[in-house]
Design goal:
The structure holds 2 protein chains of 2 kinds. Chain A is an all-alpha fold. Chain A has 15 helices and no strands. The C terminus of chain A is likely disordered. Chain B has a two-stranded antiparallel sheet with strand order 1-2. In chain B, strands 3-4 form a two-stranded antiparallel ribbon. A two-stranded antiparallel ribbon of chain B has the order 5-6. Chain B: InterPro entries: CDI_dom, CDI_dom_sf, CDKN1A.
Chain lengths: 302, 228
């Protein structure tokens, strides 16, 4: 019998570098160059004929699942989506080739960001072998060419540390805020609307949404509602109104995705019960039941 | 708004927590997938879903692992829709894919030719371009730029190669054949190096690409280093 132990599989990381994170010039540079990596228009209108927004969402969701399952670094997925959007805004593409492109973009982003990148073989398997290895490798070069080999794009994740550092957050909450913000960033990357926003705005909105959602505003006045928005807006030179709008949109996307998840939940629940999971999680489930509101749609975000 | 968001976030978390059940995964045991892989093994997954009755006997021989996702991940788990291993848009048109691939490579090659004033197919300079090319013996070129069988044809296709000297020549036919039949490059014993005729290189228009592309390109690309 073969046994796999994931706990052994540690990635050795560098410590956070204060020279980078505590220097405002880095943040300013990021803000200066971030515009270069944003698609200028909606390519659904002017470039793509075959590809619809819902298809982008489908491929994005698949890419996110692969990245999650493979435990990729947080920035891999948003970066891969950036590649995909930039490619699609220059090359008309058929829908049956979209999954291949998604795989290629993950392949590239993973190689750029990870010490142990995703392998081409794994990506092919995740496409249920509909993609051939040779195709993945050939198209890697095409995508690279269309991106002008310009792979080190600025992603919202690049801003998180810079933003979080400047907020009066309780020490023990920083990691949680960071994690939630990263989650919201990933969620944003699945929605095309956000692809046209500057990464700094998405990052700022995500941190704002995370802090609001975690109820961290009870301790410090400056983390309260408008104060927080003003503070966040100042850090990344974003218009306060834009930022608030962005944060609201993030919360709406969150709501939408959870509603979808909820709709799908019923059949899946049945499914999983059949799979006969080992026990030990009952407590968690019971807790779920008790804390779940009768209907999420009743929650008003406006 | 914040209190609504709070109630909402709690709802998210609890909903997502339920999805946790989806996180119970069967680990792959295929030798070729290394330890980080969670890829369902080639044959296991379909069997599990189709023949539930046999599931216990199948899984008992394998390792089952329940991974509990962190709370934040559960929000994303709400997006999940069944197995990660799946075909999204029906069967892939491999022939069409090959054609598109070749066309894109050819277009890139043409762009590069126009930009650098050099016909990479015949390995000859194009008259009337912004660059004046002259031959340099292979021996005088740094090793990096000498013919290589690994990166066949790459620089041509990309149209962004910083130094046309990379367009080394001595490519044997077998190294080229598989990628593009259009890359039949003649063997010569010289390298070509461009000299900028004017003080600056004029950014050339790409006639076969839409206006949108050009706008995008200016916005996205880094300042061109060559020709400056």
């Amino acid at each position: 019998m073969e046994l796999l132990c994931l706990e052994m599989d540690t990635v050795i990381r560098a410590h956070p570098d204060p020279n980078i994170l505590h220097d405002d010039r880095v943040l300013q540079s990021l803000l200066t160059i971030e515009e270069r990596f944003i698609p200028q228009f909606s390519y659904f209108k002017c470039v793509q004929k075959d590809i619809q927004p819902y298809m982008r969402r489908m491929v994005a969701t698949w890419m996110l699942e692969v990245c999650e399952e493979q435990k990729c670094e947080e920035e891999v997925f948003p970066l891969a989506m950036n590649y995909l959007d930039r490619y699609l805004s220059v090359v008309p593409t058929k829908k049956c080739h979209l999954q291949l492109l998604g795989a290629v973009c993950m392949f590239l982003a993973s190689k750029l960001k990870e010490t142990r990148p995703l392998t081409a073989e794994k990506l092919c398997i995740y496409s249920d072998n509909s993609i051939r290895l040779q195709e993945l490798l050939e198209w890697e070069l095409v995508v690279l060419g269309k991106l002008k080999w310009n792979l080190a794009a600025v992603t919202p994740n690049d801003f998180i540390e810079h933003i979080v550092r400047k907020l009066p957050l309780p020490m023990e909450k920083v990691a949680l805020v960071r994690k939630h913000a990263q989650t919201f960033i990933a969620l944003c990357a699945t929605e095309f609307n956000f692809a046209l926003y500057p990464p700094s705005m998405i990052a700022t909105g995500s941190v704002g949404a995370a802090i609001c959602g975690l109820q961290l505003d009870s301790g410090d006045q400056s983390l309260l509602g408008d104060n927080l928005s003003d503070l966040l807006a100042k850090i990344t030179n974003t218009e306060v109104d834009c930022l608030k709008e962005c944060q609201e949109q993030i919360e709406q996307v969150l709501l939408k995705s959870l509603q979808e998840g909820r709709r799908r939940q019923q059949p899946q629940q049945h499914h999983q019960e059949q799979e006969g999971r080992p026990g030990g999680h009952k407590g968690l489930e019971e807790q779920d039941q008790s804390s779940t509101p009768t209907d999420v749609r009743d929650v008003n975000l406006q | 708004m914040s209190c609504c968001a709070v109630g909402f976030a709690q709802a998210c978390r609890s909903l997502a927590r339920r999805r946790d059940r989806a996180a119970a995964r069967v680990l792959p045991t295929e030798g070729n997938l290394n330890s980080r892989a969670h890829v369902p093994s080639r044959d296991l997954r379909p069997r599990l879903s189709r023949r539930r009755g046999l599931e216990v006997s199948v899984t008992s021989r394998r390792t089952i692992m329940c991974r509990i996702m962190p709370i934040e991940k559960r929000v994303l788990a709400a997006l999940r829709s069944g197995s990660t291993r799946r075909i999204l848009f029906g069967p892939v048109d491999h022939e069409g894919l090959r054609r598109d691939h070749q066309k894109l490579l050819r277009d890139d090659l043409e762009d590069a030719s126009r930009r650098w004033g050099f016909d990479f197919l015949t390995d000859t300079p194009i008259e009337g371009s912004d660059f004046q090319w002259e031959s340099v013996p292979v021996a005088k070129v740094p090793v990096l730029y000498r013919p290589s069988t690994v990166s066949v044809g790459e620089p041509q296709r990309l149209g962004a190669a910083p130094k046309p000297a990379v367009e080394s020549v001595q490519r044997s036919r077998e190294t080229v054949s598989c990628i593009s039949e259009s890359c039949n490059i003649l063997s010569q014993n010289v390298e070509s190096v461009p000299e900028v005729k004017q003080g600056h290189a004029v950014k050339r228009k790409q006639t076969n690409i839409t206006d949108f592309y050009q706008a995008k390109r200016r916005a996205v690309s880094t300042p061109r280093k060559s020709g400056q």
